[in-house]
Amino acid sequence: GARPRKRPRATAVPRARKRTSNYYGVSHVRETNRYRARYKDTDGNEKTVGSFVTEEEAAHAYNDKLRALGLDSVRRMNAVDEQGRLVAKPKASSSFYGVSWNRRKKQWSAYVKGQHRGDFDDETAAACAVDDYLYELHQPDIATQKANFPRA
Question: I need a surface site. Which of 41, 54, 79, 82 has the fewest CB within 10 A?
């Protein structure tokens, strides 16, 4: 008789995790509609600082706790500008083709067809480097389809 056909294996599609806060050590708790501040101690155990009404309060509490424990040099801190306002953490990914955030270098990296085209402080500069390379390839169809800033 005929052998039953095997069903193709379902492949898991990785989902991008939605960020629940703009700050390190802070997450939104949907059930309570509050923000939780957490950190990892020197042994890597997660500890809760507290629950807060705003994510800014939680971010400040996170920073204060790390400083009090002397962990500010070994854990990510939330940056504060000259006026004392919190600065949001950088986006994990870019909306530009071929551009991604390099956490280790703390810069935007430009890649085209698996080739590293450079690291940049500015996300737009990385996107321009991607475009330059696409046009250098002299493949107008690819450049027209994928360029971040199409040229006339």
Answer: 82
What digits encode the pLDDT tens for the residues 88-110? 887 667 888 899 888 888 899 99
Q: For every residue of the chain, which 3-state class applies, written as one string?
A: CCCCCCCCCCCCCCCCCCCCCCCCCEEEECCCCEEEEEEECCCCCEEEEEEECCHHHHHHHHHHHHHHHCCCCCCCCCCECCCCCECCCCCCECCCCCEEEECCCCEEEEEECCEEEEEECCHHHHHHHHHHHHHHCCCHHHHHHHCCCCCC
